[in-house]
């Protein structure tokens, strides 16, 4: 699976030299491939890494999955993203790249939408792939 590719070599080792941007807080839907259960989550982590080297830019995007609470088989199912969520994430990423790689600041680099929302369920580290990879910066007790 795609997830295994990132486990072969250390994720941090392969991404050395890239700047990063974690995205949290957009509500997306996960679907379990085993029991077909689906669930919404505002705790989606997508890691964007980017760099500019010799005038050429590279962007890597890595969505992290969640394990199904019912099955808990150790498979991380990836979220589905709405067109709007993708567009919003890319616009924020473009703004970050313009600012950090080209020195442009268009003033549109706003904070994550996660801070504007209140979620009622605590973060479940045992079901979070990003937590298990050491990437997630959310904690169990925070409302998000």
Automatic annotation (TrEMBL):
The keyword Isomerase does not apply. Pfam families: Zn_ribbon_3CxxC. Residues 25-134 form the 3CxxC-type domain. Its main location: membrane. GO terms for biological process: protein insertion into membrane; protein targeting to membrane. It is a single-pass membrane protein. One of its GO terms (cellular component) is membrane. Keywords: Membrane, Metal-binding, Receptor, Transmembrane, Transmembrane helix, Zinc, Zinc-finger. It comes from the Eukaryota. The keyword Zinc applies. It is found in: Membrane. Transmembrane segments: none annotated. InterPro entries: R-trans_p (IPR026096), ZAR1/RTP1-5-like_Znf-3CxxC (IPR027377). GO terms for molecular function: olfactory receptor binding; zinc ion binding. PANTHER family: RECEPTOR TRANSPORTING PROTEIN, RECEPTOR-TRANSPORTING PROTEIN 2. This is Receptor (Chemosensory) transporter protein 2.
């Amino acid at each position: 699976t795609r997830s295994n590719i990132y486990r072969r070599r250390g994720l941090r080792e392969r991404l050395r030299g890239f700047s990063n941007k974690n995205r949290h807080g957009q509500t997306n839907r996960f679907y379990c491939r085993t029991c077909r259960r689906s669930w919404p989550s505002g705790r989606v982590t997508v890691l964007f890494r980017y760099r500019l080297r010799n005038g050429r830019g590279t962007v890597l995007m890595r969505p992290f999955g969640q394990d199904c609470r019912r099955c808990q088989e150790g498979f991380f199912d990836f979220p589905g993203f709405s067109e709007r969520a993708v567009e919003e994430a890319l616009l924020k990423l473009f703004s970050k790249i313009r600012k950090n790689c080209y020195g442009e600041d268009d003033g549109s680099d706003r904070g994550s939408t996660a801070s504007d929302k209140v979620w009622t369920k605590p973060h479940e580290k045992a079901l979070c792939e990003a937590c298990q990879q050491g990437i997630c910066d959310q904690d169990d007790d925070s409302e998000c």
